[in-house]
What we know:
This protein is mainly α. 47% of the residues lie in helices and 8% in strands. It has 8 helices and 4 strands. The chain has helices at 14-30, 45-58, 104-107, 113-120, 122-133, 153-169, 172-179, 188-202; strands at residues 70-74, 78-83, 134-136, 142-144. The strands form 2 sheets. The chain has a two-stranded antiparallel ribbon with strand order 1-2. Strands 3-4 form a two-stranded antiparallel ribbon. A hairpin with a 5-residue loop joins strand 3 (134-136) and strand 4 (142-144). Helix 2 crosses helix 5. It is globular, with a radius of gyration of 20 Å.
Amino acid sequence: KIEYYRPRTRDLNTQQQEFIKNKILDFEETLTFNPGDPLSDKFHPIGFIDYWLLQEFSRNNEGYTRSQYWYTKGVEEDYRLHMAPVWDFNHSFGGVLREFKYWSSVVFFAVSNLWYKIIANREFQEQVVKRWQGYVDQGGEYQEGLRDNVFNPQRLMLQIDSIRDQFVKNFAVDRDYARWFRSENQNFETDLIYFKRWVLTRL
C-alpha cells in the first residue's frame, strides 16, 4: 500500500500518483533474493542502511511496515528513492517487547518482501558492516563507523541524560502524566534506568 504525504493525495493528479507508484514497483522488481546480484541503482543505499541500523538498534517492531517515509528528488536531479527521517518508536527500545535480543527484520511478522530482498543482498550487507564498523578508504584514511560516534555508548548516555534534564526542567513528565493515562507501575526515573540499561545491553 502506497500513501502520499507531501504533496497529499488530494494535491496529486492520477498521472503523478502512478509515476510514484511505478517508481516503487520498478525498484522492487529490480531486487531479487539472490545475495550475489548487484545492488540496485534505483535507491540511495546509505539512507536505507542508516534506517536499518536504527530500526535494529531500537528493535522497532513497526519500522518495516507503514511507519517509514520515502521520497524522490525527481527524475533529472536524482532519480533514486531516498529514505526520509525516521519516526514512530513507541514499540521500540523494550517498550513493548522487553527482549533485547534478535533482529526485528527477522522476528516481526509484517516485514515486506522488498526489505527481505534488500537485507539479503551481499553488497548491502557489506556496506552495512562498513557503515557500522568503519573502514580504510582508498587513500589509506580511516573512516569512522557509526559505532564510533552516533552509537557510541558514552555519547548515547550523555544525550539521554541531557534530554532527561530538559524534560524535568520544563515539567514535561508532569504534563504527560496529566494528559495521558498513568498506571501505578509507571515511574519516570525507574523507567529511565531501565531504558538506559536496555540500550547498553542491546549495543
